[in-house]
Amino acid sequence: MKFLFLLACATAVLHTHYSGHAAQLRRVWMQDHCHHGICTGVEIGRNDYVILSQMPIAKQLMLTFLNSSIAKIPHLMFDTFPDLQVLRMENCSVEVFEKPQFEGASNLMSLFLGHNKLRDIPKNIFLGADNLHTLHLNHNQLRTLHNSSFHALKELQELSLADNQFEQLPLGAFTPLRKLIDLNLGGNRLSAFPRGIFDRNLNLTRLNLARNRFVVFESELLKLQPHLKQLDLSSNELHDLTLNFAVVESVLANNCDMRKLTIYGYVYELELRNNSLRELPHIPHAGNVTSLDVAHNPLGTLQGNPLRRFTGLQRLNLSATGMNEIQEDVFKKQTHLKLLDISANSLYNLKFPIFSNLKSLQYFYFQENNWNCDFLQLLMNSFVKKRDISFMEDTTEPELVDEYVDGVVCWYESNKNTKKCSGEGLSEAALELAIVRNDIKSFMEVVEKKFVKVYRMLDELKMRL
Ligand SMILES: *[C@@H]1O[C@H](CO)[C@@H](O)[C@H](O)[C@H]1NC(C)=O
Ligand SMILES: *[C@@H]1O[C@H](CO)[C@@H](O)[C@H](O)[C@H]1NC(C)=O
Ligand SMILES: *[C@@H]1O[C@H](CO)[C@@H](O)[C@H](O)[C@H]1NC(C)=O
Ligand SMILES: *[C@@H]1O[C@H](CO)[C@@H](O)[C@H](O)[C@H]1NC(C)=O
Ligand SMILES: *[C@@H]1O[C@H](CO)[C@@H](O)[C@H](O)[C@H]1NC(C)=O
Ligand SMILES: *[C@@H]1O[C@H](CO)[C@@H](O)[C@H](O)[C@H]1NC(C)=O
Ligand SMILES: *[C@@H]1O[C@H](CO)[C@@H](O)[C@H](O)[C@H]1NC(C)=O
After folding, report:
1. What are 244's strand-pairing partners?
2. Which of 107, 254, 274, 392 could form a disulfide with 296 if both were Cys (CB 3.0 to 4.6 A apart)?
3. Is 75 in the pocket of ligand 7 (CB under 6 A)?
4. 388 CB burial (10 A radius; 0-12, 13-18, 19+)
C-alpha cells in the first residue's frame, strides 16, 4: 500500500541521461489539474520526463494552461491527448522545444505560446504538426530563425512572431508557409528583409511590421501578392515613403515622422496619425480612398483645395492638424463623407458654404476648438441639430471656459489669444463683457432666426428642383 502510493506520487530519477542532465521521471496527472479544458498549477521542470496520464484521454479538443510553470511541452502531450486541436500555453515560462516535440500532433490546429521564454525555434521542430493553422510565438526572446524553422507547416495561415528580438530573418524562413495569410512581426528590431522573402507566400494578405526599425520599406517585397488587406508600418522611421501595390485595402503608418507619402495603385483606408505631413499624401487613385486619418500632422489650413481628388471619402480625420480656418470650398467634392473630425484645432468660426456638399454627413466632431459662442450656437441650430448629426462634447474644466453650447466649449472674446488665460481679475472688465455678451446674444438670436428661415427656404427650393 505504502509502496503503491510512492510509485504514484513520488519523483523517481531515471537512469538515462538527457541533454547531459539526469532526467527526472515524474507523474503529473492531468486529471488532477484540468477541469473542462482549463489546467492550473502544473509545474514541469526542464529536466523532467513527465507522464500525464495512465492512458490516452480521448475527445479533449482544447486545453488551456493557467498559473503554470512548464519549461517545455511534455513529450507525451499529443499521445495523452490525441484529439487535441487547440493548445494554449501562454505565460507558462516555456523555455525550450525538444525533439521530437510534435509527433502525433496531426490534429493540432492552433498553438498559442505567447509570453514565454523561448529563445530558439529549432530546425524542423514542427514535424508532425502538419495541420497547424494558427501559431502564436509573440512575446518570447527569439532572436533568429533558421530557414527550416517552420518546415512542415504547409497549412499555416496565421503566424505571430511579434514582440521578440529579431534583427534580421533568413531568406527561406517563410518558404514552407504556402498558405500564410496573416503575419505579425510587430515589435521587433527589423530594418530590412532579404529580397524575395515573401515570394512563396502568395496568399499573404495581412502584414504587421509596426514598432520596428524600418527607415525604408520596399513594396517590391510584396509584388507577387495581388491583393493585400492590411499593411501596418506604424512606429517606424519612414520619413519619405513610396508604396507601389496593385491593391492594398488598408495602410497604417502612424507615428513614423513621415514628411512625404506617395501611393501608387489602389488603396482604400489610410491611417497616418502623428506624422510630420505638411501636405496630404500623393495618390493618383485618390478617388478610391474611402477613409483618411491624418490627425496630428502639421497640415495647416489646407490651401489649394488638396481634397478635390479624394471624391470617394467616407471618413476624414483632420483632428489636431493646426487649422485656424477652413476655406469654403475644401469639402466641395466630399458628397459621400459620413464622418468628419476637425476637433483639437484653433477654429473660431466656419463659413456655412463648407457644409453645402456634405450631404451624407452623420458624425461631425468639432470639440476642442476656439469656437465663438455665437457662431457655435448657430452651427448647432442651423446645421448639426437640424440634420440630426452626432457630435462630441468637450471635457475642458468649466473654470477655463466662457460657456458651453450643448456641451461644446466656446468663448465670447474675439481675441483668440485670451483663450484659457482668464480666471483672474474677473472684475469690471468681466462685467462689461457680460453686458456686451448679452447684447450680442439677443442680436444673434434675431440673426439666427433669419438664418434658419433662409435654410428652410433653400431646402424648399431644393425639394422643388
Ligand atoms: C496560482 O498558483 C499559486 C501557487 O502555485 C496559488 O497560490 C494561486 O492561488 C494560484 N492562482 C490561481 C488563480 O490559480
Ligand atoms: C503571467 O502570469 C503571472 C503569474 O503567473 C502574472 O503575474 C502575469 O501578469 C502574467 N503575465 C501576462 C502577460 O499574462
Ligand atoms: C538556408 O540558409 C542558409 C544560410 O543560413 C543559406 O545559405 C541557404 O541558401 C538557405 N536555404 C534556403 C533553401 O533558403
Ligand atoms: C490561396 O487562397 C485561395 C483561396 O483561399 C486558395 O484557393 C489557394 O489555393 C491559396 N493558394 C495557396 C498557394 O495556398
Ligand atoms: C508620435 O510619433 C513619435 C515618433 O515620430 C513618437 O515618438 C511619439 O511617441 C508619438 N506620439 C504619440 C502620442 O503617439
Ligand atoms: C476605383 O474607383 C472607380 C470610381 O469610383 C471605380 O469605378 C473603380 O472600380 C475603383 N477601382 C478599384 C480597384 O477599387
Ligand atoms: C481622430 O483622431 C484623433 C487623434 O488621434 C482621435 O482621438 C479621434 O478619435 C479620431 N476620430 C475618429 C472619428 O476616429
Report:
1. 264
2. 274
3. no
4. exposed
Q: Where are the beta strands (DSSP E) in 129-259?
A: 134-136, 158-160, 182-184, 206-208, 228-232, 240-252
The C-alpha R_g of the chain, in whole angstroms, comes to 31
End-to-end CA distance of the chain: 99
The answer to whether the CB of 75 falls within 8 A of the CB of 50 is yes
Name beta bridge partners: 110. 86, 134
pLDDT tens readout for residues 238-264: 999 999 999 999 999 999 999 999 999
Give just the sign of the alpha carbon dihedral 94, 99, 103, 109. Answer: positive
Report the residue among 290, 292, 318, 341 best suited for mutation to probe ligand 7: largest number of ligand atoms under 8 A from its CB: 341
**247 CA from centroid of ligand 4 (Å):** 17
Q: Which protein residues touch ligand 5 with a CB less than 6 Å away?
A: 255, 257, 274
**Ligand with smallest separation from the Cα of 175:** 3
Across the chain, mean pLDDT equals: 88
From the CA of 287, how far away is ligand 6's center (Å)?
A: 8
* Residue located nearest, by CA, to atom 10 of ligand 2: 91
For 402-452, what is each residue's pLDDT tens digit? 889 999 999 986 544 444 444 333 444 444 554 455 455 555 554 554 455
